[in-house]
Amino acid sequence: MDFFIRVGKIVLRFLRATGRLGLFTLQAVYNCFTPPVYVKQMVEQFVEIGFYSLPVVALTTFFSGAVIALQTYEGFSQFSAESSVALVVLIAVLRELAPVMAGLMVAGRIGAAMAAEIGTMRVTEQIDAMITLSTNPFKYLIVPRIVVSVIILPVLVLIGDVIGICGGYLVGIYKLDFNSVSYLNSTWTNLTTGDITTGMAKAAVFGFIVALLGCYHGYNSKGGAQGVGSATTNAVVSASILILISNYILTELFFKG
Amino acid sequence: MSKVKISLHNVCKAFGPKVVLDDCNLDIYEGESLVILGASGSGKSVMLKCILGLITPEQGSILVDGLESVHANGSTRVQIIRKIGMLFQGAALFDSMNVADNIVFGLKRDKTTLMQLVYDKLAQVGLTKDVANLFPSDLSGGMQKRVGLARAIASRPEILFFDEPTTGLDPIMSDVINKLIVSCVKNIGATALTITHDIASARKIADRIAMLYQGKIIWIGTVKELDKTDNPYVRQFIQGSSEGPIKLPTIEES
User: Which residue from A99, A247, A249, B115 has the highest number of Cβ atoms inside 10 Å of its Cβ?
Assistant: First the structure.
């Protein structure tokens, strides 16, 4: 009996949390499409999310591309299919590695920062103060973060695509002794608009997830420093898990058949 | 008698099994300064947040200048909020902005007018112009409270709320803040509602004092009446005695 009570409580807690997140999402999306727009906050977020995330996205995609080239060569050379390395690097980076790595990196860097900043504002009553000063915290704090994340993550992924392919190319040329021209030719001929746009579409979804969960956990944080700490952890963990789950769903949608 | 500015009727609020406001009734008149006394956890802050609409009571009605605050729609909520300025317990300054931006937050005027407003309000709370460019983390607790007060009065609100204005301040700074509150309230002719457990502060600020206990206003009167009352709850509270009818929750009870 005790077991069923516990399971029931967990299910109820899960449903409550899902409902709260659903309402928060609706409110956030509604506020994205209604005035006023805080342009200064948007610009600040472009710098914070876009510009400052660039180094970490560049590094991770570069080494992801490089390691894919190494591993593919290792496997494909057993079947004398080394010439497909450039194609595999291209597809892996464009379709999966760049969007997922960028999403996870931004979740760690920006999702955590959003949860910590908004959480601290919540527990120190700054959000209540904002309301008493006739400013809607959803429009001032949450909308700029969500809108900018949805716009800027695809751009980061596009840059990550180029850098990831460069990583594979450099390993291919200097480590695996591929011919530079034929590697580039293989990459160029296999490059499709679809691969680029699906990667960017995934990135837009991941950007939404990261910003939404960072803001949600921060906005609903309770207690003091410990509450903000939990909000930060929850924001990163939940965003990372949702990114991986939604990546599978999007891959099924985009590439099945 | 002046008109009622804020009116609470049978307001009830509970968090789970804990009843915080229990059929609470209170009228605050235009232009008066009312202080609500009560022990920690007695529901003073919840009452303020209910009036502001930050918390929705389960039952009852709250009228602010004739506008219903409970379940108010967007435009009514904005109308109510625009009438109110608030000084928060920890000042609640935006730590990503400097003092000037904090003071004029949410105000829409040209830059020169806003800067003049900043300097005027800083002067009103006894701070110099050079504070305008500092960040909240550069200020002492007392200075943060003053900046918070400057922000609260910047839009010349009709109603001012003060949440524990002297908590965490030394007696001298507390007195400075009390005097500033009195002068600011008189200057802008606002109706003031202060919640505190600092009796000395209440005596300085209040025209009338109310005592909140177990979710109800159990006593209300002027400062003079406070000293003469034979209400055992009020007497115990102003004497700061642990002996008396007010029982603080023990660990077993809570």
Answer: A99
In the numeric block, which tokens belong to residue B62?
Answer: 């709250």
CB of B165 within 8 A of CB of B146? no
Q: What's the CATH number for B1-83+158-254?
A: 3.40.50.300
B103 CB neighbour count, 10 Å cutoff: 29
Asked if A182 is an interface residue toward chain B (Cβ–Cβ < 8 A), one would say: no
CB-CB neighbors (< 8 A) of A139 in chain B: none
User: In chain A, where are the structural domains located?
Assistant: 35-255
- What is chain A's percent helix, strand, coil content, to nearest 5? 90, 0, 10
| B76 contacts: CB under 8 Å, gap ≥ 6 | B67, B68
Whether residue A246 contacts residue A206, with contact meaning beta carbons closer than 8 Å, is answered with yes
Coil, helix or strand for B15? strand
Q: Does B48 touch chain A (CB under 8 A)?
A: no
Nearest to B92 among A117, A126, A134 (CB): A126
The beta strands (E) that lie in chain B are given as 4-15, 18-29, 33-37, 59-64, 67-68, 84-87, 159-163, 191-196, 208-213, 216-222
Q: pLDDT, tens digit, for every residue of B144-195?
A: 999 999 999 999 999 999 999 988 888 888 898 899 889 888 888 899 999 9
Cβ within 8 Å of B, A 127-166: 128-135
Please report, for chain B, the start and end positions of each structural domain, with discontinuous segments joined by +.
1-83+158-254, 95-156
Chain B positions touching A133 (Cβ under 8 A) are 105-106, 151, 155
Q: Give how far the C-alpha of residue B203 lies from the chain's centroid of Cα atoms, to the nearest Å.
A: 15
pLDDT digits (tens, 9 = 90+) for B195-245: 998 899 999 999 999 999 989 999 999 999 998 898 998 999 888 888 888
Over range B43-69, report the average pLDDT: 93
Chain B: residue whose CA lies nearest to A126? B92
Separation between Cα atoms, residue B52 and residue B64, nearest integer Å: 9
- Residue B80 CB neighbour total at 10 angstroms: 22
d(CA A217, CA A2): 30
Sheet holding B159-163, edge to edge: B84-87, B159-163, B191-196, B33-37, B208-213, B216-222
* Spatial distance between the Cα atoms of B138 and A109, rounded to a whole number of angstroms: 27
Residues comprising chain B, all counted: 254
